[in-house]
């Protein structure tokens, strides 16, 4: 009969693999390599915000149709998260990360033919391929980061890794600003007077520019793949006394266990709402700026996203400091309530004040994803279900495919991009309720 032991030697010198999957201490080099993966999906996600603005004009789309960019992106996350978790269970976190990098490389490479074919559907295929890679990366890295050290610091480790995410987001927006928008000015105004073949040829020329940032991304991905391939990484899985791997458990049994965990289900739903809300705000901030001020160029409007990601980064740093001293539910409860109030200003204020509020709200996004993720994962007391539980939480990212589409429909139906921000406002209010209720439950317990 297999019995569990307290610890075993890890592949990393001076680090013990504990029975529950956590490590006796954090291996700095390995933690740094995993953390450097986090900017990679931030870059891809922020480039989507640029592509939405570009595609709307070139392909003459309404706001609901432009949201298909996010539907393809986050739909890929949803479909691949469980398969990614199965790969992790059967192999290792390292192997899953390497698969994610390879799929990301393929997706970025597809922008070469997409820019030549110049059809909306081909670009969506490339974006979906990238999402497959990112689903592997996030499913593996989010859980792996939290496991690389003592359990009591799991939430803090994930928040530290997530601090690097907005750096990638800023890089993505800047790549889009200078390599895609460039010196074009306001693309919609420039193409407004074009018809027929002239419009078609100019639109194809603009789509060629979408390839440029992915050339640099490909280079970085290849370097990261090589570095990871030649670095020893700890297992960070529950152990037994005769094998150093997670005990086998059927997927159906795992899903049944998770379905009966009320706190886990609440966390997954909150993650769905949060990701959808964040994605919706960032997807339409550039559009909001162009609507509220007709005198600025696309490149100028994209700067509001740069400011958003900088403020997002600051929000993460401040929250990480607060989380080290205060209960997570109180910190996130205050963040969420203030964020809801800020989005109310975005929805109803006049002029550029609405745009400034849309930028400021990113401060309150800072700690949401990693904190919800780590807390929800911690509700899974049976650690043999950890990999699949992490995948289910990542699947909640599909909110990014749903909420922006709803906001796009509201914008088209109401004729007001600004009023459509009522959708993320409601979402943030629901996230506020989640953290307030969690704080109340913990106090009662």
From TrEMBL:
Recorded superkingdom: Bacteria
Matching entries from Pfam families are given as:
MFS_1
UniProt cross-references to InterPro entries, sorted A to Z: Lfuc_symporter_FucP, MFS, MFS_dom, MFS_trans_sf, MFS_TsgA-like
- Where is this gene product found? Cell inner membrane
Q: Which residues cross the membrane?
A: 28-47, 67-88, 95-112, 118-137, 158-181, 214-231, 272-292, 304-324, 331-349, 355-377, 389-410, 416-436
Membrane topology qualifier: Multi-pass membrane protein
- UniProt keyword annotations, A-Z: Cell membrane, Membrane, Transmembrane, Transmembrane helix, Transport
Residue ranges annotated for the Major facilitator superfamily (MFS) profile domain, each copy included:
30-440
Does the record bear Cell membrane in its keywords? yes
Where is the major localization of this protein? Answer: membrane
User: Which PANTHER family would you find in this protein's record?
Assistant: L-FUCOSE-PROTON SYMPORTER
- Record protein name field: L-fucose:H+ symporter permease
Q: Which organism is it from?
A: Periweissella beninensis
Tell me what gene encodes this. Answer: fucP
């Amino acid at each position: 009969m297999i019995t569990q032991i307290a610890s075993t030697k890890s592949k990393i010198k001076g680090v013990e693999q504990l029975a529950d999957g956590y490590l006796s201490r954090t291996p700095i080099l390995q933690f740094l390599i995993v953390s450097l993966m986090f900017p990679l999906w931030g870059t891809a996600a922020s480039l989507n915000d640029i592509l939405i603005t570009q595609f709307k004009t070139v392909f003459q789309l309404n706001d609901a149709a432009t949201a298909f960019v996010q539907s393809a992106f986050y739909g890929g996350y949803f479909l691949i998260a469980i398969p990614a978790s199965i790969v992790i269970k059967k192999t290792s976190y390292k192997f899953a990360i390497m698969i994610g990098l390879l799929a990301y490389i393929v997706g970025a490479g597809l922008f070469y033919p997409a820019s030549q074919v110049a059809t909306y559907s081909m670009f969506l295929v490339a974006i979906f391929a990238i999402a497959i890679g990112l689903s592997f990366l996030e499913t593996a890295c989010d859980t792996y980061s939290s496991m690389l050290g003592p359990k009591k610091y799991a939430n803090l480790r994930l928040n530290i890794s997530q601090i690097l995410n907005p750096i990638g987001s800023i890089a993505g927006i800047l790549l889009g600003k200078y390599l895609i928008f460039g010196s074009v000015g306001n693309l919609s105004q420039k193409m407004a007077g074009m018809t027929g073949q002239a419009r078609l040829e100019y639109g194809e020329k603009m789509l060629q520019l979408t390839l440029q940032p992915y050339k640099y991304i490909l280079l970085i991905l290849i370097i990261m793949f090589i570095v990871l391939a030649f670095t020893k990484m700890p297992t960070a899985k529950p152990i037994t006394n005769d094998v150093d791997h997670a005990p086998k458990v059927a997927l159906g049994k795992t899903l049944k266990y998770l379905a009966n965990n009320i706190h886990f289900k609440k966390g997954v739903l909150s993650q769905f709402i949060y990701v959808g809300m964040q994605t919706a705000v960032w997807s339409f901030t550039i559009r909001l700026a162009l609507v509220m001020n007709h005198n600025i160029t696309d490149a100028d409007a994209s700067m509001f996203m740069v400011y958003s990601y900088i403020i997002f980064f600051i929000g993460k740093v401040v929250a990480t400091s607060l989380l080290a001293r205060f209960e997570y539910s109180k910190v996130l409860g205050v963040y969420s309530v203030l964020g809801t109030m800020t989005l109310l200003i975005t929805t109803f204020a006049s002029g550029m004040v609405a745009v400034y509020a849309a930028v400021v709200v990113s401060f309150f996004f800072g700690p949401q994803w990693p904190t919800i993720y780590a807390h929800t994962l911690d509700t899974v007391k049976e650690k043999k279900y950890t990999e699949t539980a992490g995948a289910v939480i990542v699947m909640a990212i599909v909110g990014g495919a749903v909420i922006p589409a709803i906001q796009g429909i509201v914008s088209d139906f109401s004729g007001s991009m600004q009023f459509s921000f009522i959708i993320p406002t409601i979402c943030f209010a629901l996230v506020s309720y989640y953290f307030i209720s969690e704080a109340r439950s913990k106090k009662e317990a």
